[in-house]
Amino acid sequence: MNGITGSKRVLAWGDTTTAFQHDSISHAFCVMERLGRESGAFQTYIRTDSQWITKQAVPPPARNARNLDFFDAILFFGTGDNLTTQQKDDLISFIRDDGRGFVGPHTGDNAFYDWAWNYTISPRERK
Q1: Do 108 and 78 form a contact (C-beta atoms < 8 A)?
Q2: What is the CATH number of the domain that holds 77?
Q3: Residues with Cβ < 8 Å from 49, sequence gap 6 or more?
């Protein structure tokens, strides 16, 4: 477990595959990992794709794969929308039904413009 004692698990997820990658994403993930490691409060798992944004089994050939059931919270830094309908349903369930955490700092509200539920997650003025 990389010497981390925290029992909480945070998925630091940055969609870097569908749109502009903001300069702050890499730095933010490093800061989150360090905060968790040094405080012992949580373990950080960093992903730059959306494979783990599911409650379904992650299919082979993935190894050591996780899904949303493994995590307590998501730190989302992204600017695109590459989720399937099933992944969106699973993400909503993760937050609404399971009561898990979702934080979308800085670029986190600059994604999923055409997804109506996004305005509940990160309210912003519609244009």
Answers
A1: yes
A2: 3.40.50.880
A3: 15, 16, 17
Domain span at residue 19 reads 8-121
Cβ contacts of residue 58 below 8 Å, gap of 6+? 51, 52, 65, 66, 67
Residues of the chain with pLDDT > 90, as a percent, come to: 39
Q: Is residue 33 part of a domain?
A: yes
Residues 79/110, Cβ–Cβ less than 8 Å: yes
Number of domains in the chain: 1
Residues 61-69: contacts with CB under 8 Å, at least 24 apart: 66/11, 68/11, 68/94, 68/98, 68/100
Please provide residue 24's backbone torsions phi and psi, each rounded to the nearest 5 degrees: -75, -15
Asked if 80 contacts 21 with a C-beta cutoff of 8 angstroms, the reply is no
Q: Tell me the per-residue pLDDT of 53-62, one tens digit each, with 9 for 90 and over.
A: 999 998 888 8
Which residues have C-beta within 8 Å of that of residue 14, sequence separation ≥ 6? 21, 25, 28, 29, 46, 47, 48, 76, 77, 78
Tokens of 56: 């379904």
Q: In whole angstroms, what is the distance from residue 113 CA to residue 88 CA?
A: 13
